Amino acid sequence: MKQSIEKGKTLLIDGPACIALYSGALRAFGAPIKVGEHIIIRRGRRIPIEAIEDSQIEILLGNSASFSLIDENPIPDSWRNAADKILSIDGRVEIVVLGNVDSGKTSFCTYLANVAFERGRSVALIDGDLGQSDIGPPGTLGLSLIRSPVIDPFNLQPDYVIFIGNTSPSSVVQPTINGLVDLRDKALNMGSSFVVINTDGWVEGLDAINYKRHLIRRLQPNFVVIIGSEEPLKPLIDSLSSLEVNIILVETPRNVKRRDRETRKMIREASYRKYLRDAKVRSYPISWIKVDGHMEIAGKPDQALKERIEGILGEKIVYCEGTQNSIILVLDERANLSNEARAKLSAELNRPIRIMRKGEERGLLVALEDGNGRFLGIGTIQCIDFERGTLKVYTNVEGSVLRVHIGQIRLDDKGNEVEIISRST
Fold first, then answer.
1. What is the pLDDT of residue 258?
2. How many CA atoms lie within 13 A of 41 on its CB side?
């Protein structure tokens, strides 16, 4: 479909869609679009495209996609003023962006990164939104150095990824904070002097405020940009004001896209599939690698301990191994271990018992790392073969893997998100 856009108008396009510029000049989030360039808008995403000149485009719309023309500038004045204020500072600048779900955080970060890049800054973009991550798969924190203007951070190649293994920071606060500080330090060490840190939409309630306050205290940024209506965010603003941080309040654009829970889940599932493309099942000897995270196992069975436990319980078990602080006990999936039996085991063996059931590992999302702890990619567990001592993972990672970090996200065989399981105790 051919479409003309007059200078000064904005095309709001909801994906999945593709546009091609035939003539004129367009811009999205401050990034210029060149004649002949094709822009992909993914499902669940809205991109506002400004006409800098009278322009001719062709639009291809997918299922449920739509577009409209509006007369207003999609970049609010408060965003432009905030960017000017931030960019008035020379040297090293770090910015943390906070706001509720669907407030425009990613759009603002993209706009700010583009403006800074166009003004000659060495820009790094850090994605701290575990549930709607763009730089890296869901459940991760991602860092990308900006090498050209950005329209959708989802298309950026991650320079560094840290696996957290959950889609919400609420139960993984400390690992998330540590990970974001680590990525900020890596960005600086890689030569960036302008670091933009996007965050998740968890901002309301005491736990959320304490999390964001702790994050800001650790990062100590030059600026904290808070997006949205001031009244609902007043407790957060008041809490951060005592940290002597430079707070900038900006508005949510009127045409920001609101996404329901199901749409957000669908976006995550598309990302899982992207990072599992061309995957196949690979086997890793457990005794050769470190397996940790939500489940830990060393692959060093203790036959004598197994027989002792079977004697106490009066029934067969699948596997067991002892660590310095606990005993890992694997039961058949149909087995039922009562609290009384568990207490008896702990008392007689004088160590806490960590219970696993055969098969409960299937579908758990994992990160695969090399010997230096660098993220290589994700996978999902197919099974643990306790007889052969191997871990089978569906992944596209090739080469040497020395650590498999198990997360709390479970996927089915088609890459659909089944559940987020609670942390082990």
1. 86
2. 26
Q: Are residues 99 and 190 in the same domain?
A: yes
In this prediction, residue 425 has a pLDDT band, given cuts at 50, 70 and 90, of very low
> What's at 400, amino acid-wise?
S
Q: Which residues of 69-91 are buried (b: 16+ CB within 10 A; e: fewer)?
A: eeeeebbbebbeebbeebeeeee
Residue given tokens 């609902």 in the structure block? 232
Separation of alpha carbons 326 and 18, rounded Å:
55
Task: Give the pLDDT mean for 40-45.
Answer: 94
Please give the tally of structural domains in the chain: 4
The contacts of residue 344 (CB under 8 Å, 6+ apart) are 312
- How many C-beta atoms lie closer than 10 Å to residue 211's C-beta? 21
Residues 212 and 252 occupy one common structural domain: yes
**Overall size of the chain counted in residues:** 425
State the pTM of this model.
0.94
Does one domain contain both 353 and 365? no
348 shares its domain with 366? no
Q: Is the pLDDT of residue 424 over 60?
A: no
Mean pLDDT of the chain: 94
Find out whether the peptide bond into 301 is cis, omega within 30 degrees of 0: no
Q: 68: burial class by Cβ within 10 Å (0-12, 13-18, 19+)?
A: exposed
At 313-362, the pLDDT tens digits run 888 999 999 887 889 999 998 888 888 888 888 888 888 888 889 999 99
CA 170/CA 413 separation, integer angstroms: 27
Burial class (CB in 10 A: 0-12, 13-18, 19+), 270: middle
Question: pLDDT tens digit string along 142-157?
Answer: 999 999 999 999 999 9
CB hemisphere CA count around 61 (13 angstroms):
13
pLDDT at 257 over 90: no
- Beta-carbon count within 10 A of 175 CB: 16
Q: What is the distance between the alpha carbons of residues 164 and 134, in angstroms, rounded to a whole number? A: 15
Which residues form the domain of 10? 2-70
How far is 79 from 292, CA to CA, in rounded Å?
A: 43
